[in-house]
Amino acid sequence: MGFRGWGDLFAEGRGARLAVICLGVWLNAADSLVTATIMPTVGRELGGFVYFSWATAAYMAGAILSGATAARLSARMGSRTAMVAAGLLTAVGCAVSALAPTMLWLVVGRSIQGVGAGWIVGACYAVIGALFPQRHLARVFSLMTGVWGVATVLGPLVGAAFATGHGVWRILFWAFGAQALAFSVAVIWLVPDDRAATDNRAPWGQLGLVMLGVALTGAADLTSSPIVAALLCAASLVVFIAAVRVPVSPRDSLFPAAAGDPRTVIGAAYVSFFGLTAAAMAFSVYAPALLQKLDGLSPLASGYAAGVESIGWTVAALIVAGLAVRWHAPILRFGAAAIVVSLAILAWAMRWGAVWEVLAAGGLLGAGFGLTSGFTGRRVIASAHDEAERELASAGINSVRQVGSAAGACMAGIIANLLGMAEGVTRAAAQSSAVWLFALAVPVALVGAVGCWRVAASNVDLV
């Protein structure tokens, strides 16, 4: 059934549509990873190191805002038009970044790219339920995860190639712009025009809260005070929760009605996505620096060592994608437990263990996500009451992950700065951070694991 299932997935034109979805995910995954590699070179050429972190913060802020509104944009414009517009906007942002004469102009370009990329990924998630039968959704999610794995492997190599020579990095942005244009053209041919007449009103209250949450998260990323950053992070989380729970007509909401209730499948799944993603950000953000300082790895080697998480994620997702429904619940429980256990292991291994033990724990961390993400996403889509709610619920997956990533990065930054990393990656600061970054992530992961176990216990029709 496994091989036949994969063959059926690619039959009847679904393979081409899947390729377009994966290209949309690639534009976000590869851009984030490759750009991080070239930023030191960009900073040296353009000057303005005071704005260095703004390029990343601007992209993340734009992606969070657009990810939250992607489903509503698709509903009002139609999936095809929304995806084409998102691709064109991304291409414009790439062009602005490629032509940037100063760091401030690069920040402008990166913010436009973030908005475009967030809309692309959110629209891709929103349209999955309409493009693919329920029986294929786990495989679709696993292949989308695989794109991140490929980007993780290729990202450091591609970024390094474009980080040499004066102005060579600009070619990279032009290349991403060309891919964004190719995405828009492909969407015209492969995604149906599902636009329908609608009198939905713009949810300005929810949108305003999302924008405020984005602004608070961005401010937390930019401040040098750990206390202020902690307060801003906490405030942004409160605002995001309020945006989900604010009373709005289901017809006009940015999120499905069940999103704010953790007793529902969608609400529990969102808790899972947020908590587990936030907890894992300590490894994504700080593992390379810690491995370089404590184990003497080169920048390239430490980057690939951190990438073992994505490799574990991809391999695990592909292995379980075709399993029968009766296996989903135990796999969800095991995957959530694996994430919690891996973080506990990292709290010891990153400080006192050998490199191979760090790699094993990182691989287990990624495998936990690979085991849980696809099956959780499938239950989110299956639990929606109608097509409109299915689009909102599916697109919300990416939004919640983006917010979780931002909150987790902010939390990890506060912990690291309080332990001395703000003054530089000294050995003493690295030794302290290697323990507490992961030990304090365990309670956050437990919250996400509880949500995942509730999803596993749910009774959803997955026919």
Q: How are the SSEs placed, and which strands pair?
A:
Layout: H1 2-9, H2 14-46, H3 52-77, H4 79-99, H5 103-131, H6 137-162, H7 169-190, H8 204-222, H9 226-245, H10 265-295, H11 299-306, H12 308-320, H13 328-352, H14 355-382, H15 387-418, H16 427-439, H17 441-456
- CATH class value of the largest domain: Mainly Alpha
CATH architecture of the largest domain: Up-down Bundle
CATH overall fold name of the largest domain: Growth Hormone, Chain: A
Gyration radius from CA atoms, angstroms? 21 Å
Order of helices and strands: HHHHHHHHHHHHHHHHH
**Shape category:** globular
Task: Give the low-confidence spans.
Answer: none
Main beta-sheet annotation: none
SSE class: mainly alpha
Mean pLDDT: 82
> What count of domains describes the coordinates?
2
Beta content? under 5%
Number of helices: 17
